[in-house]
Specification:
Elements: H1 15-25, H2 40-53, E1 59-60, H3 72-83, H4 96-106, E2 113-116, H5 119-130, E3 136-141, H6 146-153, E4 157-162, H7 173-179, E5 184-190, H8 202-213, E6 219-223, H9 237-240, E7 248-253, E8 266-269, H10 272-285, H11 291-302, H12 307-327, E9 342-343, H13 364-375, E10 377-378, E11 380-381, E12 391-394, H14 399-414, H15 420-423
Parallel strand pairs: 1-10, 3-4, 3-5, 5-6, 6-7
Antiparallel strand pairs: 2-8, 7-8, 9-12, 11-12
Helix pairs in contact: 3-11, 4-11, 5-6, 5-10, 7-8, 12-14, 13-14
The protein binds pyridoxal-5'-phosphate.
Length: 424
């Protein structure tokens, strides 16, 4: 019997070789993920989990996920799809039935619909398909934290436009005009907004549309994932600015309104050439969204809808309670949001105060860290959303938890000591 000897080298076990090997096996991250920090929301959740594991009484009002279950008729549609054998690779753009249903609701053609693994994947497909290094994306702040990371991952640069409480957290036409440069590729709107709950009226969208009409190199992405959780009349960007449909993508999905965050189905309605470019990305990354989840989403879009107004009413009641309770806390001012399930109060008036153990609260992040340490309540600092001086609290939780959360916040603020040096 003959053997082929393949030469290989086993390094001697010396200290210096161990160090060499450690260096050799050290993970080298790609430049494109270099600037991506662990999301502040995830960091807060992890700190809350760590405290809970140590036996502390922790209440997290920090995540953006409905506490309701997926309605049973939607789950049934998924079981049926499995039993019918809808278990093979789906078409990359989405099943014909789901694309047709989405298109019909939006008054678009099915060829202009792309179904993806959540709205997040739609954003990733779209930016990966269209951004080159240095291209700019205008994002009004406060904004959903993932936007800037997905833009960075795609090689682009986020241009933040700060929209404070006085402006209803909304971008004005003048701000938009001033932010546009020859490098602008996209403006990314989100109405109703995460985290502020702001909703643009038809007139406000039309006014932004007038600016955009003068800049044909800028495309519009309108993230409308909270459209069915809206307490004032909702207008889609496509309805407000039909003349811009040739460079507009509307993003939506089933995660929020139908409590289907785990099913991972979202979609975009866009010009056919953009859909085609996005398919080139999606085809190599996911091959399309889960066939069973798409069957469930089809039922969500076309089936019984009574859970939508019921849950919207429940969210409105919770919103009213939380806004009143937080606004009554001295130093906290809580604007009334018109949609989604978040409040975005200001904590600016308590900054400069000192905690019972002598720590000066300088930033919103200091404030949120103090609230968590002092009372076990997890909330997210506004800086994570591009607008410091605020915090986000999600009211997609049971009423008892919201009452408990507001009481904890009140206790935390009550424990603060005015700073003698700054108070004078
Ligand atoms: N867009 C906004 C504004 C969101 O808040 C979220 C989730 O928090 C998403 C998109 C992502 O939705 P999906 O679960 O469909 O990926």
């Amino acid at each position: 019997m003959t053997y082929t000897i393949i030469s290989f080298h086993i390094p001697a076990r010396s200290m210096s070789n161990t160090a060499v090997n450690q260096e050799r096996f050290m993970l080298k991250k790609a430049d494109r993920i270099d600037g991506m920090a662990l999301s502040e929301i995830v960091a807060i959740s992890e700190e809350a989990a760590r405290l809970r594991a140590q036996g502390h009484d922790v209440l997290a009002l920090s995540t953006g996920e409905p506490d309701f279950p997926t309605p049973p008729h939607i789950c049934d549609a998924a079981y049926r799809a499995m039993q019918d054998g809808q278990t093979r690779y789906p078409p990359t753009a989405g099943t014909a039935a789901l694309r047709a249903a989405i298109a019909e609701k939006a008054g678009a053609e099915p060829g202009k619909v792309i179904v993806a693994t959540g709205a997040k994947q739609v954003l990733a497909d779209m930016f990966l398909a269209t951004l080159n290094a240095g291209d700019e994306v205008i994002v009004p702040a406060p904004y959903w934290t993932s936007y800037s990371d997905i833009v960075a991952l795609s090689g682009g640069e986020t241009v933040l436009v700060r929209c404070g409480a006085a402006a209803g957290f909304k971008m004005t036409p003048a701000q938009l005009e001033a932010a546009i440069t020859p490098r602008t590729r996209w403006v990314l709107l989100n109405s109703p907004s995460n985290p502020s709950g702001a909703v643009y009226t038809a007139a406000e969208l039309a006014a932004l549309g007038q600016v955009l009409a003068r800049h044909p190199h800028v495309w519009i992405a309108s993230d409308e994932i909270y459209d069915l959780i809206c307490y004032v009349p909702f207008t889609s960007f496509r309805e407000a600015c039909p003349d811009l449909a040739g460079r507009t993508i509307v993003i939506n999905g089933v995660s929020k309104a139908h409590a289907m965050t785990g099913w991972r189905i979202g979609w975009g309605i866009a010009p056919a050439d953009l859909v085609k470019a996005m398919l080139a990305v999606q085809g190599q990354i996911t091959s399309g969204a889960c066939s069973i989840a798409q069957a469930a989403a089809l039922e969500a879009v076309t089936g019984e809808q009574s859970h939508i107004p019921e849950r919207r009413d429940a969210f409105r009641d919770r919103r009213d309670f939380v806004v009143a309770a937080l606004d009554a806390i001295p130093g906290i001012s809580c604007p009334m949001p018109d949609g989604a399930f978040y409040v975005f109060p200001s904590c600016e008036a308590v900054l400069g105060q000192v905690t019972p153990d002598g720590k000066l609260l300088e930033t919103d992040a200091d404030f949120c860290a103090y609230v968590l340490a002092a009372t076990g309540l997890a909330i997210v600092p506004g800086r994570a959303f591009g607008l410091p001086g605020h915090f986000r609290l999600s009211y997609a939780y049971a009423r008892a938890d919201l009452e408990d959360g507001c009481a904890r916040l009140n206790r935390a603020v009550d424990g603060l000591i005015p700073n003698q040096r700054t108070a004078s």
